[in-house]
Design goal:
Elements lengths: L1 E3 L5 E3 L20 E13 L6 H4 L2 E12 L15 H14 L5 H12 L5 E10 L9 E8 L4
Antiparallel strand pairs: 1-2, 3-4, 4-5, 5-6
Helix pairs in contact: 2-3
Length: about 150
């Protein structure tokens, strides 16, 4: 996979590697990229624009793909040296249950922002699905991808 930097240089990831974020020319070549993910987290929350959605919790499914820039330091088998998906899950659960939200887009943006509380997270792809809206669909929702402006 390759892409062009603003100055025309070609930037390449090893074959078979996929990044949730574009490889940029300000990403030092000696650093690697790690993907941290959450699959099929199903929670109940108050979400929607209709009156009946204000009082009745709905099931939502959340999937996260986080791109983490490795800084070259060894992990040393220490949780403090990696992005902790348990902490990410705690933040997501708190956001989903804190208040009624009208739009799935708003909730997805809030979740993406919470992922960036860990400075190592370079990008976040958030897929948010409402599971019980229409009888003839498995789900409806939104997927966003955001870059951490602090990285």
């Amino acid at each position: 996979m390759s892409d062009k930097a603003e100055d025309g240089r070609v930037l390449t990831l090893p074959a078979g590697r996929v990044s949730a974020a574009p490889v940029t020319d300000n990403m030092p070549a000696r650093f690697g990229v790690r993907s941290v993910f959450v699959r099929d987290l199903v929670l109940r929350c108050l979400i929607g624009v209709h009156d009946h959605e204000r009082d009745t919790p709905q099931r939502v499914r959340i999937n996260l793909d986080l791109t983490v820039v490795e800084d070259g330091r060894p992990i040393d088998d220490k949780l403090a040296n990696v992005v902790c998906y348990e902490e990410i899950l705690s933040r997501v659960r708190a956001i989903v249950t804190r208040r009624h939200v009208k739009l799935v887009e708003t909730l997805a943006e809030d979740i993406a922002a919470a992922c960036f509380t860990d400075a190592a997270v370079q990008s976040a792809r958030v897929r948010l699905e409402k599971l019980d809206v229409f009888a003839d669909t498995a789900s409806v929702g939104v997927e966003i991808e955001r870059l951490n402006s602090e990285v």
